[in-house]
Write the structure tokens for this entry.
Amino acid sequence: MINFSYTIWIPLLPFLMFILLGLAGHKLKPKLSGLLGTGGLGIITILSYITAFKYFFTSEKVDGAYQKITALNFTWLQFTDKLHIDLGVLLDPISVMMLVVITTVSFMVHIYSLGYMKGEKGFERFFSFLSLFSFSMLGLVLATNIFQMYIFWELVGVSSFLLIGFYYQKPSAVRASKKAFIVTRFADLGFLIGILILSFNTKTFDFITLTNPTGSAIAQGGGIAFLGLSVMTWSMIFVFMGGVGKSAMFPFHIWLPDAMEGPTPVSALIHAATMVVAGVYLVARMFPIYALSAPVALKVVAYVGAFSSLFAAIIACTQTDIKRVLAYSTMSQIGYMMLALGVAGYGGHEGLGYMASMFHLFTHAMFKALLFLGAGAIIHAVHSNYMTEMGGLRKYLPVTHITFLIACLTIAGIPPLSGFFSKDEILAAAFHSNKILFAVEYAVAGLTAFYMFRLYFSIFWGKDTHYHHTLHEAPATMTIPLIVLAIGCIITGFIPFNKLVTSDGRILESEIELMIAIPSVLIGLLGIGIAYIMYRKESTIPDRLAATFKYSYKWAYNKFYIDELYLFVTKKIIFRYISDPVAWFDRHIVDGTMNAIASVTQSVSFRIRGFQSGQLQKYAFVFVTGAIMLAILFIYLWK
Amino acid sequence: MNSGIPIQYFLILATMMFFAGVYGFLTRRNLITILMSVELILNSVNINFLAFNRYLYPHKLEGMFFSLFIIAVAASEAAVAIAIIINIYRRFTTINVEDVNEMKY
Amino acid sequence: MDILSLFVVIPVLTITAILLLKDTHQVRMVSAFGMGLQLLMAASLVFLYLTARHAGNNDEMLFVKDYLWYKSLNIHYAVGVDGISVAMITLTSLVVFAGIFASWEVEFLRKEFFVSLILLATGVFGFFISIDLFTMFLFYELAVIPMYLLIGIWGTGPKEYSAMKLTLMLMGGSALLLVGLLGIYFNSSPDGSRLTFNILEISKVVIPLPAQRIFFPLTFVGFGVLGALFPFHTWSPDGHASAPTAVSMLHAGVLMKLGGYGAFRVAIFLMPEAAHELSWIFIILTSISVIYGAFGAIAQKDLKYINAYSSVSHCGLVLFAVLMMNQTAMNGAIIQMISHGLMTALFFALIGMVYGRTHTRMIYEMGGLMKVIPFLSVCYVIAGLASLGLPGLSGFVAEMTIFVGAFQHPELFYRIVTILAVSSIVITSVYILRVVAILLLGPTTNEHFEHLPDAKWFEKISVVTLIGSVAAIGLAPFWLSTMIGTSLHPIIEKIISLNPF
């Protein structure tokens, strides 16, 4: 048994950095605080790599399967005898994989931010928030129980809020951060309800107990039925709702595009590579329950994922803000991962989708972070977010150009880049499970290639735009992460995921199925080809197409008016028809009743105050009369 | 034991004094007259005390003491009341009770 | 002199000292010293308590002292504490301590202000140490009365109206409460032995059910008025809005907790059968409080009103959890009282400080304060995050304990209501973020506000004390939760043994 207790430092170190930079950051030199944050992250990146190596290659396997190792666990809060929140570190294939993903991307983003955020006001604040985020995200993936996950789930939410609203004097950023927080909070409500139902039925929060395929939690399975579904299914659907919110799946996706108001490194780290895949991670973490005890909920996962990926891909084709295109692309790719989980089963060859999903999560983190960081370098140079204002940048930004191209090819699924392998596995899993979903994903693969190369060609090729200032390549702090991630994109495809990360921890035999691989590459190439024709040189085809499909284009351009729908529901219905009436009711009915009681008392006493004239003689008269009456009463009538 | 005046005579006198006092107290508006009426009431009570004491418990003296108390109280009351009345007169230049209504309501 | 009575004696001595002072400048130093001493006392009480428990003292109440006060009615001055009261006393001393510093700059009738403030605190401390219903009621009244003066004299806005409204409504509650307490007293010995006011003795007998049915609602509503039970909460927005800073802090932070504590310690503990029977009515009312308060807060424009409605919502949660009558939920209720007490005191302190600078509490008249007064703004954001239940701050611990506990209730109705109450966390985040966004973020809208001074040293003491406590509970809730939990055992055992679920 290897001692993993040092892993506690992996989340703890960023936390200490957060405290240090948060409390004393404004007293340090900005550069020093940046280096402190980055250095801390560098250390834990190394620690994570060591952990991954030790876990995957030296830890004991039982029965050919990787074991879940609880490296550390202590009770944080006791609810009942059985229910208690623990904080601890759980190591299993997916959490170790996530450690590598998070620390790598986070480290790259830290280095990149040293250049990107240079000279910004609040430099140390930025790094303290980044540390807070890294802490929460690592805590989330290392969670030993579902409540710990919920705790860190909320914490990543708030660090996302803080980072989106980093430019707090910009109204649009404030709005976006508020929106992101409230939308995900609403989804978290579902998560919490799911936890409550789950814990009520299973009397435990602990992941190992919950997800033990032969344990009582899963064996109990059915439970009482409500609306035709078992309690377990309901709870897992609710839990998934949390994942839908965090991972920006339809219908809670609306916060993600707006979240691009944050600084670009943040978008790369939080809203592309790590936090938004928390939903996928959540489903993967609870996967045995989904697969064995709540198959209907798993179907929901698959369909939500498929719909979101299609929906987002269509919108991505029409957007002009490069970060928004990437945001929708993120949503689409996460849809892929969800779908892959949704079509998977537990153990054996059924588990292909699970493995594919984790694989795609891994590769996606690399290429999407690269895309965002590349976009950041472009925005840094051009000072604009809109691709309509760009063109011909390949001459000015050579490093960015090459790395961006690699990322685009990766996401389009061109071999031998990593995206090809992971996407191929997903398509294969879908093909074996559900042909309709496969068809949808196949179409999305083509769309993905199209919109990514639409982006690529309009930025780096297309018309030569004249810029007001001379453009120059980003500094080394920004280009080095780009290069590292580009190398990551190239090599990560060859990691034998089927041996490392599988649903039951055992090796999964899988190979590339040419029947699926070849058509998927072809449709990718087709998408690239269309984009080449339309956007390689200045051309009128896009405009003509947009004019032909006027209404559908307009719908897609306006994101199918989902935002407006939400706005309508919140502003017009909840604020106007619930909140304002409640306030009115409180002031006028409840408070009015109290005031009415007071004023009735007052007016009655006003009427009867004449009795209290203050003239002693009147009182005396009443007194004497009364005395005489009483005397008469007692003497003559009281017999 | 006691020949002579029967107790009813005392009682009738006391009653008359009492009601005269009450009448005066209720109808007069002059503070001095009201004070005098109060004295009448107190003295009528005194007479009752003495009469009953003498007729019912001739060997005890509580009634006597009580009337002595009342006289003392009445004297001090008169002193205080007249002091108040003089102050009222200084303030309002009247001792009519109906005109002294500044604190009403 | 026993240690508990010191909690009443120290404030009284402080008041005496203040009254003897000639120089009004020393008044606040003396108050701060007295209340600082009180805080130290509270800390040592926690220590003594834990030591005694650790040594294996398993009595229900510790440090019990009993003096006969009025023989013919068997009224005693009886004091004693368990983990719950110790926690509440600590909360009170923290809030009072912070409150003294928050009102450092009161100029008008300074001496009288501090006297009333500490008198109020005396009442609260007395309430929490009493285990005799009569003394408890006495201290309760002592805490409520100075409120009238504090709001009526040092308040802002329609202060006379608010003071009158608050006092009358609370007195109305007291009237119901007195009837309830007397009802308990006259039924305290069904076997015909001597009647008693002592809580511990009453808890050993079973009050006849017909009497419970009458007196439980009276007692519960009586305390509920102070705990902002819907629909008797309307004193809270007006009262808080008009009160001076420290008074709002004390009132929302501590005085409203008297309601929850009393409802728990007197109404439910002494009359569990009726509580069980009638809880559904009050559960509905409290759930309305929770949701309704939160929705009400969304529509408000005045900072203090927002906070007052938010208090209605949070205190509703306290009563809600108390009525669930199981170990976890009640534990949550107590933690929520403490958490809300600290958090809302922090809020009111900050609002007072912001108001002292901008001279307005209307959120739309302000904006972009983060740039101008960063310290206060950051503290405000922390308070907001605590209020919306962010992990790592106290609100999360309290709310989750309540929700998990309430959801363990075996009846479906209660679980559904719990889900409704859970949904308040979303509404809370809406109104908190709305305020934060309008008030603190964005560009600075009013050019008069561009050169406001940030927090002064005494303001920092006040705020940092509270934030420190909020974060301490949020980061390490285990001790608090266990301390309360062990004290809850005998109470829960009584309740459970009488109502086997």
Observations:
- The longest helix of chain B spans residues 62-92.
- The radius of gyration of chain B is 17 Å.
